[in-house]
Amino acid sequence: MTGDLLLYNGKILTMDNANPEVSAVAIRAGRVVAVGTDARARAEMGQVAQAIDLRGRTATPGFIDAHAHPMSVGAALADLDLSTPPNHAITDLVALVARETKQLSKGKWIVGRGYDQARLADNRHPTCHDLDAVAPDHPVLLIRVCHHIAVANSRALALAGINPDTPNPPGGLIDRDEHGAATGVVRESAHQLLRDAIGAPTEQS
Questions:
Q1: Quick check: 116 pLDDT over 50?
Q2: Domain with CATH 2.30.40.10 in the chain
Q3: CATH code for the part of the protein at 70-198
Q4: Helices (H), 11-167
Q5: pLDDT at position 202 over 60
Q6: Distance between CA 51 and CA 73 in Å, rounded?
Q7: pLDDT for 74-105, tens place per residue?
Q8: Vertex 194: Cα angle to 185 and 169 (nearest 5)
């Protein structure tokens, strides 16, 4: 915002606990110079090129969020909540997946979000073997709280085309065991291989 502006006769939410609501705000050269009553704001501004009568309407500060994922937040509402806590061990995460297999037909994706291996008693990521034990017939993808790391079961890895010959994608890493087999843990851009396998959400999903 540039220039001078007076907003008055409104309900202006300041986000200041000491003075949460005022009727007017004065802005000079793009900066707030006064908040308070209409009289105070007018006295601060004097002559102003633009004055807007809010007529009792509400005004709030503008919000600039430089890093937000509103689509992901919405999608997460339909996924398993793997938050750590209340989940304290890999067995807790596996139990949630096992329960979900009973709710979904074979072949349906099971997706969960929010685990933190550093806060699990096991102090490690789950592996494809942990997930295969309870969900051999469902592709499973569990996404770490940071959304930069995930773990998939063998069914999901196969659908994503990840095998011993699959190279790491640019900017990503497929964790492997001593024999070169994928452990199920995928990092950074390798995570996208699994997301692509799931496909775009539909109204039904």
A1: yes
A2: 5-59
A3: 3.10.310.70
A4: 38-45, 70-76, 90-101, 128-132, 154-159
A5: no
A6: 38
A7: 676 789 999 999 999 999 999 999 999 999 99
A8: 75
pTM (predicted TM-score): 0.67
| Helix, strand, coil % in the chain, rounded to nearest 5 | 25, 25, 50
Q: How far is CA 166 from CA 121, 123, 124, 196, 199, in A?
A: 32, 27, 24, 15, 20
136 residue type, one letter: P
CB-CB neighbours of 180 under 10 Å: 9
CATH 3.10.310.70 domain span(s) along the chain: 70-198
Say whether pLDDT at 36 is over 70: yes
pLDDT of residue 1: 43
- What is the bridge-based pairing of β-strands 110-115 and 80-81? parallel
Higher pLDDT, 65 or 123: 123
> How far is the C-alpha of 185 from the C-alpha of 171, rounded, in Å?
15
Cβ pair 126, 184 in contact under 8 A: yes
How many whole angstroms separate alpha carbon 26 and alpha carbon 60? 13
DSSP string, 14-54: ---TTS-EESEEEEETTEEEEEE-HHHHHHHH-S-S-EEE-
The domain made up of 5-59 has a fold known as Urease, subunit C; domain 1 (2.30.40)
- 37: amino acid identity, one letter: T
